[in-house]
Amino acid sequence: MKKEDSLALIGIAVAVAIGCLLVFTLGSTDQVSRWTMASIIGLAFGIQWLAFIPAYLKRTEHFYDLVGGSSFVGVTLFSLLLSPSLDLRSVLLFAMILLWGGRLSIFLFKRIQKAGKDGRFEDIKQSFPRFLFAWTAQGLWVSFMLAPVFVSVLQPTGSIDAFLLIGALVWIFGYGFEVVADHQKSRFKARPENEGKFINEGLWKLSRHPNYFGEITLWVGITVIAIPSLSGWQFIALASPLFIFSLLRFISGVPMLEKRADEKWGHLEAYQKYKRGTSRFLPRLSRIGS
Question: Taking the domains of the chain in order of start, what are their residue ranges?
Fold first, then answer.
């Protein structure tokens, strides 16, 4: 067995172990049993493993992101069905996940249909363990990101407070930032004169990855909304934004895109100037109007 395949199997085991840890910590109160949490997180992983079967047989990644975004919506809805009662906080969180997950999954699905392939999967989709790891990691992504939502939905507080109001405002800002960044890039790439060029306008002038900044920000908002519902070991759910930040900033997002961009435009002085003057992640407000 190749080294990459062995590492993938280890990765699968680690992802499942972290999923079990979430079950143990989040399902640690009288209101939320570990059996309930196991059924929710089990569903998050199960959806990915079922989708992996036809994906591997066809050696395709075309519906990977669609399944991922849809899983957020489906698993959140499932947790709502298990909730003892619904309050404004629960309904608001579901609406946020529905808007974010629905838009993002459709956006990414259309993008890969147009592009024909996703460079992330060019090699790994030929390997059973490596491709399975990608789907398993997506199950962990869904579970970890939704951890504060699960607790909040299953332990409704029934009150409107500062956490809800502030979190909602943060989410609106982050969601809007991500949507605008995606729209600006799509519009830029649609213009024939920009064929083969890098985007350096709009929000992309403030940050080289403004869509990722928006995504992390909206998850901060969701986590803030859920804070009043957390207790004891459940405060591990506060790591949700840190998880997505680490994933996008250091593992699967920014590093991969930066490497591709360097390979494509690294020889251009204009791109080197863009890199020197534009923040990798956090928007540089001083660039506004420049």
Answer: 3-287
* 290 Cβ contact list (under 8 Å, min separation 6): 205
- Give the pLDDT of residue 253: 81
**Contact at 8 Å (CB) between 69 and 108?**
yes
Prediction pTM value: 0.91
Angle between helices 88-115 and 162-190 (to 10 degrees): 10
229: which residues sit within 8 A by CB, 6+ positions away?
Answer: 89, 148, 151, 152, 155, 156, 157
Task: Name the token pair of 71.
Answer: 């899983």
Token pair of 191 as six digits: 């213009």
Rounded to a whole number of angstroms, the CA Rg of the chain reads 20
* The amino acid at 176: G
* 8 A C-beta contact, residue 79 and residue 149: yes
pLDDT (tens digit per residue) in 85-141: 888 999 999 999 999 998 988 887 887 777 666 667 777 888 999 999 999 999 999
